[in-house]
Please model this.
Amino acid sequence: MNSPRQNSASRLPPCMSALTSCLLGLLSLLTLACLLQQLLGLSALFVALTLAAYLLGAVVLLARARGHPPLRCFGAANQVTLARAALVALLFGLAGEVNTAANAWLAVGTATLAITLDGVDGWLARQHGLSSAFGARFDMETDALLILVLSMLVWGFDKAGYWVLLAGLLRYLFTAAAHALAWLRRPLPPSRRRQTVCVLQILILIICLLPLVSKPWSHTLAALGILLLAWSFAIDVIWLARRARPQTEEASS
Model:
């Protein structure tokens, strides 16, 4: 008779190495980018930027995966997150294109698919007991890059000024500050508020990209999104600062 552990393992979806997953993703993305280039009359720069962004991300991913199980077995949840990362690379490729209705709808559709898949990878990880610190970090970094690239598109498509880039840079500014200030490196507890604000920020940027939404509405929406994101970061910084104060007082005494 099979043990419960064996039965659970038999229900797990097949997995492949991180390298194999990245290579298959590269081939799929190359095919899709070339197809879109032909259908929409996009420039060769679109394909080049898309592949460059994906390859850079794949190199970082494989370096981070070294010594972790995903290097040998890239599960279904991580594969979905990798597909989301490929969609982000596709959006980055659009950053070099002109603002046409077709390009805008492509950006909206691609970003909408990316955010929809955001719930799929987490569900798969929980469903098959594959949740890991690596997968959570991979998912978080993909979300951060999605916001950054969407803010670049909103600026590049002239839906808002260069200040909209702050929406994508806030997280990286926080990370840079954490390198200088040790108290910012304390782990933050899980937060539904943080997750909700992240999704809302992505949705706001997607709405700004809609061809039907023009200035001043896109300006206003983008500004509201940045204020919402800044408010969420402020809450986290205050939380970290309050917990760093007792340690500072102990050290001084």
User: Anything to note?
Assistant: The chain has one domain: 13-243. Residues 1-10 have pLDDT under 50 and may be disordered.
